[in-house]
Amino acid sequence: DTGVSQNPRHKITKRGQNVTFRCDPISEHNRLYWYRQTLGQGPEFLTYFQNEAQLEKSRLLSDRFSAERPKGSFSTLEIQRTEQGDSAMYLCASSLGGLAGVTGANVLTFGAGSRLTVL
Amino acid sequence: AQRVTQPEKLLSVFKGAPVELKCNYSYSGSPELFWYVQYSRQRLQLLLRHISRESIKGFTADLNKGETSFHLKKPFAQEEDSAMYYCALREPYGGSQGNLIFGKGTKLSVKP
Known about the structure:
The complex is a heterodimer.
Chain A: E1 5-7, E2 10-13, E3 19-24, E4 31-37, E5 44-50, E6 53-57, E7 65-68, E8 75-79, E9 88-95, E10 109-110, E11 114-118
Parallel strand pairs in A: 2-11
Antiparallel strand pairs in A: 1-3, 3-8, 4-5, 4-9, 5-6, 7-8, 9-10, 9-11
Chain B: E1 3-5, E2 10-14, E3 19-21, E4 24-26, E5 32-38, E6 45-49, E7 60-61, E8 72-74, E9 83-90, E10 100-102, E11 106-111
Parallel strand pairs in B: 2-11
Antiparallel strand pairs in B: 1-4, 3-8, 5-6, 5-9, 7-8, 9-10, 9-11
């Protein structure tokens, strides 16, 4: 296990097209998070899963965005009908969540990110 | 509402000088606070968290509830400390306990 893996690393698409990003978390981590980062900003929370359940969604996650984690392992983030404002770095992170007292619990480990450019 | 403020976009110091990266938060309870760092061409990684009360790479940070601050300090900066530093807050209880709220980051540049 080499950490959190994200694919593709860079995606260039035309406005109106759909894109999908994949995240493979650290295998023993039960929580998986998606963040978005634009230039000059810190990461902004989009959504997170505990196992296969999507527990929270930010209001940043419009109805064009959908995230899944069907078997509680990898996750996908799909953006439909992309707009130029969707151009950003999409970060995935995973953690051991809900385990108070466990070393490393609730510490997020980030992937390298998937950069989206919408032309 | 939760908010994390890092007032400085850029902090430039000379090697060997003390460093303090400021972080203030607004939260009515007892949050968990973290510092994450991103070195050039590397992914975001945890530097330290307040509940650990440890020093990592010479950096320390003390949670000051009265001033709602969690400033990051190092007595003698090194060139390899040059990076983006993000302060982050996690609500330990309640509905939003899963995610981190990040500040906008401070770019630290340590000159030789």
